[in-house]
Design goal:
Layout lengths: L19 E6 L10 H13 L5 E7 L19 E2 L4 H4 L12 E4 L11 E6 L3 H5 L2 H17 L2 E4 L2 H10 L8 E3 L22 E5 L8 H9 L5 E5 L5 H11 L3 E5 L3 H10 L2 E4 L8 H8 L4 E4 L4 H5 L4 E3 L4 H10 L3 H15 L4 H12 L9
Parallel strand pairs: 1-2, 1-4, 2-3, 4-5, 5-6, 6-7, 8-9, 8-11, 9-10, 11-12, 12-13
Length: 372
């Protein structure tokens, strides 16, 4: 992770009437080393901190966990650093260094001071669907309080918007705005210089437990003798390795956690990407794989058809044979080539700049600041 250097002096917002004052609560950078939410929030900061329409201040965690934090985001400002660990402060109201600003939180925190507008991003409802006990109660109580208080809720997909209305039916739908995530096609793209030897690899990316359905990926490849499984993500446990040996023999490879450049090369090299998750708020790996020219085989569930549309292939049921059937069909070169072309076209429809333009319009709503 890059070492951040922060100004010691206090900074004040610009008095330029052509700028909207905004405070971005970056608590997520103290909670995740990497992940979809941190990636989204980083892309938001890329553009918000240089936008001529915004005078931006950041609230930063006491200790940064996010490994790709960019000190350039703080250039020309004095971020407010929190005193408590993010594991504690995440459940407390967030400090607001400048009253009267628009306040946008990365993870369901209410503002401690008075703000002109309160904005929250809603990602998914995995806690509500898959967790129980005290952890679910605390998280859900905080989340619903945030959603109900918000002047605007930014939902990362229409699927997430439907979830908000399901779990918070008393909320005014007019306050919900869909701002899709994006993919940087300068980072994820087809590459002629691919990694040799992975032409028969089916790639799985992400966590290995629960609703991500790592078991389905292994069972699907088990039914396709000419294919092997490649696993990107957290280090496999001993039990997970034993499961793979039992089901696949030697037809699997553990890549472990990889950087963005290596992940791009893998997407561009493998036979297909399999994403059998039971539930996703968006499913960013689907876009990233398609942008690299990798055919996508996904679950026909939650947000995944919304993101992949007709460019991805979807299992008819959450069964290994349904996934294996699609993988067999991709063995036809013409079928696979058509999926590659469609995926590249589909991925190009999503961009981080479009996400920011939609978000900026919500920041400026009701102000006298007009984008030029």
């Amino acid at each position: 992770m890059k070492k951040a250097v922060f100004p010691k002096s206090s900074a004040v917002f610009s008095e330029n009437a052509d700028q909207r004052q905004i405070v971005l609560d970056c608590v997520i950078f103290g909670l995740q080393r990497f992940g979809g939410i941190s990636n989204y929030w980083a892309r938001l900061l890329d553009q918000a901190t240089i936008s001529p329409h915004l005078a931006t201040r950041l609230v930063l965690p006491r200790q940064l966990s996010f490994r790709e934090f960019d000190p350039a985001w703080t250039r020309g400002m004095a971020p407010l650093r929190e005193r408590l660990s993010s594991q504690v402060s995440r459940y407390m109201r967030a400090p607001v260094p400048d009253r009267g600003a628009v306040f946008h939180t990365s993870y369901y925190r209410l503002p401690r001071g008075r703000v002109s507008r309160y904005i929250v991003s809603a990602y998914d409802f995995t806690y509500e669907r898959y967790r129980s006990g005290l952890a679910r109660y605390v998280h859900t109580t905080q989340k619903l309080a945030s959603l109900r208080r918000a002047d605007a809720v930014l939902c990362i997909s229409h699927s997430t918007k439907r979830d908000v209305l399901e779990f918070c039916p008393d909320i005014d739908p007019a306050r919900l705005h869909v701002t899709h995530l994006g993919v940087d096609t300068g980072v994820f793209f087809p590459d002629a210089a691919t990694i040799a030897g992975h032409e028969t690899t089916v790639l799985f990316v992400g966590q290995h437990t629960g609703y991500k359905r790592f078991d389905l990926a292994a069972d699907a490849v088990r039914q396709c003798p000419r294919l092997r499984l490649g696993v990107v993500g957290p280090t496999l446990s001993g039990a997970e390795r034993d499961m793979l040996r039992t089901k696949l023999g030697s037809r699997w490879h553990e890549f472990g956690p990889v950087g963005t450049a290596e992940l791009r090369r893998l997407y561009a090299s493998v036979f297909a990407f399999v994403f059998p998750s039971d539930y996703e708020g968006f499913g960013l790996p689907v876009l990233e794989a398609m942008a690299c020219g990798c055919p996508v085989v996904a679950a026909n569930a939650s947000s995944l058809p919304e993101v992949g549309a007709g460019a991805a292939s979807y299992a008819a049921e959450q069964r290994a044979d349904a996934y294996a059937r699609i993988l067999d069909e991709l063995g036809d070169s013409a079928t696979r080539a058509a999926r590659v072309r469609a995926g590249i076209v589909r991925a190009a429809e999503f961009s981080w700049s479009r996400m920011f333009e939609q978000t900026l319009a919500i920041y400026l709503d009701g102000s006298n600041v007009t984008p030029r």
